[in-house]
Amino acid sequence: MSAAAQAALGKADELRKAGNDFFSQSQYEKAMERYTQALGTIEGSSTEETALATKCLNNRAACACQLQQYRAAIADCTKVLVRAPRDVKALMRRGFAYESIEKYTEAIGDMRAVVAVEPSPQASAACIRLEKFARQQASLQAADAAAAAKSKGKAAEGKAAPAQPTPAKPAAPQPPPTTTPSATPSAASAPAKSAAKQPEAKPSETKVGDSEAAAQAAKAKERGTAALKRGEYKAAAEAYRECTKLCPADHAHFSNLSLALLKFGQPTHAATAARRCTELAPEFAKGHFRLGQALRAQGEPAGAVVALEEALTLAQRSGGKEATEVVKELAVCKAEASKAAAAASKASTSTKAGASSAEAPKGSAAKSLVSPVVQEVATEGASAPPTGTAAKAAPKKVDLEHAKAMARRAAEIAAAKPSAAKPSAAGSTAPPTKPAPPQPTAAKVGGGASSGGPRPSLSAFERALNAAWRGGKGSPAEVRTALSLVPTSASEMVSFVGEGLTEELFSGLLLGTQLAEEPPAVAASRLCHLTAVRRFEMCSMFVGAKEKAAAKAVLTAAAEAGPAQRDELVKAASKYGVKL
Length: 580
Known about the structure:
The chain has three domains: about 5-135, Serine Threonine Protein Phosphatase 5, Tetratricopeptide repeat; about 210-345, Alpha Horseshoe (Serine Threonine Protein Phosphatase 5, Tetratricopeptide repeat), CATH 1.25.40.10; about 420-575, no CATH class. The termini are far apart. The longest helix is centred in the N-terminal third of the chain and has 40 residues, at about 120-160. The chain has 29 helices and no strands. It is mainly alpha-helical.
């Protein structure tokens, strides 16, 4: 290697280390710039230069994942894998990015490659999770394809109809075609003519169902818009949420939901809705604009700038009216981002001065808590970065929290796999490991999760609860046994559920707790712990009257049984939207 190439390599490595410093401070945009500059500085393709380029590409991919730029992350990881097909970091990060854009088949391929190269519980658990997602996605796609085929067949029949004899009038008023599907068993021996009529009725029914959903969504949208104008933002969010359920492929409904959630004071959920909007319609400028607004409200001006710049580009390209509004918002976000960067730079200087002696152990401890997307970025040949700043800044990044939750849940699934049969086998016969103590307090819940044996995964608990619940027909004892698998403290509950709280699970926990006939303090304590879980606000916002009634009944019973805990219970009740 020539002296000039050696000097260029040294400069590139310095830029990489500077990028690592920015990464440790959660300044991902600046870190990406440094990694890009380092890649541009490398001149040749020697072994050392290739190794350094691989590090920079991997680290830049990690930054892209943090900024939700998943396609950019996939591109960088693919470049690494062209040079080194068995690079575990690139495989893991690309698999994570594929999962984030719902390309589950590609994600499974990468995770299986990781298992083949360097087996780990996390990669194995990811394979199991991704296979489940892939099956669900394939099922939905098959249903959509079947509906489209039926609709196409119906359209073809409609075109062919005029060529048939003119008794079109008798065919129209004829009620029998609508009733024939329900009468098919008794008409099994009917002639071929009646058998041919049955498929004719089914496509029309499917088509009517789709049109009814669209009509209901239109009505819900009207309610949401009216509520928004009145300043009733929660009602607006509920109406727009109904729209997204009825027409989940319509990006405009997610844009409206994002606006309502933002005005209701839920910027995190507003950002989630906006991201879904941009996934459904990447060229829809308003979706990126909504995302920028939500990120700014979350205190992420740098991320907001990226989203708003994309919105401006799209708006100018299409001649959209919102370009002027985007320009104003973008100017404000850029100013806020500059201030935040200056403050972070000043804080990092003082933090580095006081934390240099404890960098290495803290770095290694923090590294074990995060997913492969962010592992080992700042430790490739350099000392571990200070974690004091990173620990404070990281929670602001929504994607990092998601990665942590995925890592925790994957580890739990892997740990519970060998003994997963035990809880389910004992579910119908064994009582909770620790029955309710004589005087339970609000700090303890359920029984068996932490008092004996490994805790099952969240998905295993959901299966146990569904099996015990049986659509509301299960016995209190069976449901109580299933609920005994829930952790016994708020912190453990948060770790156990992670980001896996869905509306269905939320509903099951509330209704199951009411049915289980546990001591009032035990049941209420579970509901109190549940309020600390991520996505609680989103799920509680959209639950039905039954679930709210169940929460009120459980909390009221506990307040009557133990007046000393009333303040805590009243506070929890307000989070569920009920009054004691």
